[in-house]
Fold these 2 entries.
Entry 1:
Amino acid sequence: MGDNRIGAIADDLATKGWTWQPLLLPDALTAALRAELIARDAASDLGPAGIGREDAFQVDRSVRRTRITWFDGSTPAQQDFRIWAETLRNALNRELLLGLFEMEVCFAVYPPGGFYDRHLDSFAGARNRVVSLVAYLNEDWDEARGGALAVWAAGAGEKDAPAARIIPQPGGVVLMLSEAIPHEVEVTQETRYGLAGWWRVNQSGLGRIDPLS
Ligand SMILES: O=C(O)CCC(=O)C(=O)O
Ligand SMILES: [Fe+2]
């Protein structure tokens, strides 16, 4: 990842709270992650995704229709992704002083008809998710296949037009401030492969240590 790319990402996050970066993930990594996701999906390794905080997990198929599986670090593709994401984390901490700490990541498959209604990735003030990262793993994609990611400006209402509709092209990466940027996955016509990750900050404090899991 070059300095120009990192500078653009930091600028976008600082000024508007989100960024779309086409072809940010290296091609070989995109292909390896795609192969793993397709194999896991075929083996029915993926379960329906829940909504809300981890301690209040619920499956509501009227809000979200997708299958996910959490990264467990067991494969070279996952390990390579984590190394790549560390570079980004260090750069964002350096440029924006965000104090990003640990990342949780899951693969996500949106089957035909899949979607995720407008939402924030974190409850304001919870600090459990600070920056969200989405990366797209399909081989190619165009508008007619659906599944665009609509992104709104911070503070925009449901009736406001989105700031952008992102076509989930392979290797493209979206970064968003998790507490501020509303977004929605529009109904997809074809199977849509991707991953979603969230960095949280270290919540260690007096009498409490927030360990790496
Ligand atoms: O796949 C996407 O474009 C976004 C997914 C998303 O919003 C989420 O998993 O929270
Ligand atoms: Fe989201």
Entry 2:
Amino acid sequence: MSYPRIALASSSPRRRELLAQLGVDFQLVKADIDETPYPNEAPRLYVTRLARQKALAGLACLTTAMPVLGADTIVVANNEILGKPADFAEFNRTMQLLSGRSHKVMTAVALVSSERTLQQLVSTEVYFRTLTAQDIDSYWQSGEPHDKAGGYGIQGLAAKFVQRINGSYTAVVGLPLCETEQLLQQWQEPV
Ligand SMILES: Cc1cn([C@H]2C[C@H](O)[C@@H](COP(=O)(O)OP(=O)(O)OP(=O)(O)O)O2)c(=O)[nH]c1=O
């Protein structure tokens, strides 16, 4: 199966590496958008909107027409969206919410052109063991939490906190490969 050449609207090194795993020919494009949620916006609507807006922002920057892929990842606990922690206090509060229970990681992907939008939401349940104050302190000191939704990276040092997951590992890291590949295949099908 051959895929269309696409642009990836992302500055995330994880997304770049994951997309490369599919063997897709792609270029990078910037996608800076305002990530503020609308008042009372449901997490699943928020994450899907952001993936689409990133892709559309990328599309607006292109000089050669091609489909643009955007993605967004959020961590949700108690129906609250836990973003990238701005400081230790926020990180500590996030870790208290995640400790000893399960939460959801939602990743949305959107593939857009000026004529079409294909999108998909993938939700994965992640189970954390109970975290000690020492776990939380030393994980913060590692520098890993800063640029990650929910303040952790399952692919990094936080792997030792994760007892199990129910869903897509690649979606937790930032790009669900099975669903992304299906969107690319669907793009090639006659409409
Ligand atoms: C939960 C989790 C998130 N993350 C990352 C994936 C995303 O890069 C980041 C969530 O933030 P996003 O806002 O989805 O993405 P981003 O700002 O990093 O990149 P982009 O330019 O595409 O907008 O958190 C991990 O790497 N591992 C994890 O286990």
